[in-house]
Write a structure and sequence with these properties.
α1 runs antiparallel to α2, α2 runs antiparallel to α3 and α8 runs antiparallel to α9. The chain folds into 2 domains: 137 residues, no CATH class; 127 residues, no CATH class. The protein is 68% helix and 0% strand. The protein has 278 residues and is mainly alpha-helical. The radius of gyration is 22 Å and the shape is globular.
């Protein structure tokens, strides 16, 4: 990797570490670590734009991709602040960690926040590669990547909007959203998020450092499917919605959208008194 790549990456990491240290102090005062997720999204946006601004590749490519990552970061940051921070209790993941760590919670949370800063730097790698690509923007792969990004971004926003409307109706308490994209995937937001990052593979394919791009979508896929995404989200859904979510699980694809199976009806309750034992 060229020397200037290391310098830019060091600047991004220093910014992310400072950002997460400030958010940790806010967390310590509020006793709510939920804002780390919004900080992660914001940090990647700033890191990506900074890497592209300081790059020496084609200006048109850097401008287009800079606009894409800025839009992604702004939307996700605002969504996470509204969904998990303002007027909401601490996210269950962090409540669990706070109870598990006990008196050591604050130093452990500091390390956790700094680990997120490291992830910000890792997720900046695609933009370092794209920023060094001298190929003028406009090749078929560039347009395919841009279309994939736009379709995935709109799908992600629609999935979040549909779920927010469902949750906003008190009549839906204890029930699972099955409308819109949630009919075809239990996690359409995760799927569209992953596709957004896959689009950067196409946008960076013509550059000499293209190999820096694919590891990030692969890492994100592993995190979503096996670590912090689907496993934890589904555990919480089963705890809060029980059999309703089990029926949804059995009928609906976990990640990649597909036509749902017919859900099994819940067992009927007894209509009368049980017969006396003979």
């Amino acid at each position: 990797m060229p020397h200037d790549h290391f310098l830019i990456l060091a600047v991004v990491l220093a910014f992310a570490c400072l950002l997460m240290a400030v958010l940790w102090l806010v967390q310590r005062r509020r006793r709510d670590a939920s804002l780390v997720d919004a900080g992660w999204a914001f940090g990647i946006g700033v890191g990506g734009v900074l890497a592209l601004a300081l790059g020496a590749g084609d200006p048109g490519r850097r401008l287009v991709v800079g606009a894409l990552i800025a839009a992604w970061s702004l939307r996700l940051t605002i969504h996470l602040v509204r969904d998990r921070v303002i007027g909401k209790p601490e996210d269950g993941r962090y409540q669990m960690l706070r109870q598990k760590w006990g008196a050591r919670a604050q130093p452990y949370f500091f390390l956790f926040f700094q680990a997120q800063a490291l992830l910000v730097a890792v997720f900046t790698l695609p933009f370092l590669a794209i920023a060094r690509d001298p190929t003028p923007f406009g090749a078929p792969g560039d347009w395919c990547g841009t279309v994939l990004w736009l379709a995935s971004f709109l799908g992600l926003a629609y999935a979040d909007y549909t779920l927010a409307r469902w949750r906003g109706d008190p009549a839906h308490k204890g029930r699972t959203c099955r409308g819109g994209p949630w009919r075809y995937s239990r996690h359409p937001n995760y799927f569209c998020e992953w596709l957004v990052w896959c689009s950067y593979i196409l946008l960076g394919l013509s550059g000499p450092w293209w190999w820096l791009v694919p590891p990030v979508p692969i890492l994100l896929l592993l995190l979503l499917v096996f670590v912090t995404g689907i496993p934890y989200t589904e555990a919480r859904a089963l705890a809060s919605r029980g059999d309703d979510y089990r029926r949804y699980q059995a009928a609906t694809s976990a990640f990649i959208p597909w036509f749902p199976k017919r859900e099994l009806d819940p067992p009927a309750a007894p209509s009368g008194p049980s017969p006396a034992p003979s």
